[in-house]
Amino acid sequence: MTKDVVVEHGESSKAPLVGPVASGVGRAVSVADVFLRFLAIIGTIASAIAMGTTNETLPFFTQFIQFEAKYSDLPSFTFFVAANAVVCTYLVLSIPLSIVHIIRPSARYSRLILVFFDAAMLTLLTAGASAAAAIVYLAHKGNVRANWFAICQQFDSFCERISGSLIGSFAAMVLLIMLIFLSAFALARRH
Amino acid sequence: MTKDVVVEHGESSKAPLVGPVASGVGRAVSVADVFLRFLAIIGTIASAIAMGTTNETLPFFTQFIQFEAKYSDLPSFTFFVAANAVVCTYLVLSIPLSIVHIIRPSARYSRLILVFFDAAMLTLLTAGASAAAAIVYLAHKGNVRANWFAICQQFDSFCERISGSLIGSFAAMVLLIMLIFLSAFALARRH
């Protein structure tokens, strides 16, 4: 097949040029891969920290009850922090492999491994972000039918903080989809 | 590169055999792709139907309030049904392209398109399933700190049904990760 295409493009006489040009594109893809991974690391770490440090104590309290809201009160938020931490760790560990791809753009099986783990991590991150988003929505709106009240009426800054912390995760989700596509694109190129 | 490896494997004299053997593996991967898509269609459609038809009316009611629980009372469940329906539709539409890959195992750019949309649909499905799971968890356990009560104590069969409907989606998520990996594997093979 490779030979056919080279002939089609009329480049059979320029054969020595094909290698460097192709690896130039592969290198650009690998550089983009490292760059996107860095952005995703920033997104997930920002999300984990923003959520993990959320804590609001209301200025009034009775003798028995102190009104305090922490992220760890809701299991979905704990899962959110854990998912972001795991994905962030994975991304940091994947950077060296990604840098190897800049040096060796034609590597294939290591890219395949990255595609698989990127997809698994995308699923984990989406699960965490989406579960947290469902609870944030409930905290804002409440639910009349289930008799769940909107806690954001009391815990105003708590709610702002947990809503904002979702942004980094959702950005990282988009970046991971792009990373999967980039790896697949690098694999689709003829070597 | 292609030539180097052929020489390394000492198969330069068997060159005519490489084509059919390689396309045999490619064909097997494509058949597995179609099969996994069918399974994922069954999973998503079962989830959407199980959740979409959930409805429980308690046998007692007052003059003013009838105790009824429907999936559409909770926005997360509506999103869950919509996400499953969209992913199911996409999977049905992707089957023809997947069948084309059985006939032409070396197709590359159409596989690339499938990888991208598979990843996007994986994200959508995970978001739906995970948001629904967060609410199902809340319905079972409630949350003392937020004053949200476990509604499953009253709506027993409703809760069983919504819990069960998640299974199909989570199975489809695993299948979609496998589909992305299969496509990447098909792309990683030398053509």
Automatic annotation (TrEMBL), chains A, B:
Keyword check for DNA repair, yes or no: no
Name its cellular compartments. Answer: Cell membrane
**Key words, A-Z:** Cell membrane, Cell wall biogenesis/degradation, Membrane, Transmembrane, Transmembrane helix
Q: Mind telling me which residue stretches traverse the membrane in this protein?
A: 34-54, 74-100, 112-139, 166-188
Query: According to Swiss-Prot or TrEMBL, what is its membrane topology?
Result: Multi-pass membrane protein
Casparian strip membrane protein domain sequence ranges = 27-175
Per its UniProt record, what InterPro entries does this chain match? CASP/CASPL (IPR006459), CASP_dom (IPR006702), CASPL (IPR044173)
For the biological process aspect of GO, one term held by this record is: cell wall organization
Q: Which Pfam families match?
A: CASP_dom (PF04535)
* Cellular-component GO terms for this entry: plasma membrane
User: What biological function has been recorded for the protein in this entry?
Assistant: Regulates membrane-cell wall junctions and localized cell wall deposition. Required for establishment of the Casparian strip membrane domain (CSD) and the subsequent formation of Casparian strips, a cell wall modification of the root endodermis that determines an apoplastic barrier between the intraorganismal apoplasm and the extraorganismal apoplasm and prevents lateral diffusion.
Its family remark reads: Belongs to the Casparian strip membrane proteins (CASP) family.
How this chain assembles, per its entry, is: Homodimer and heterodimers.
Q: What is this protein called?
A: CASP-like protein
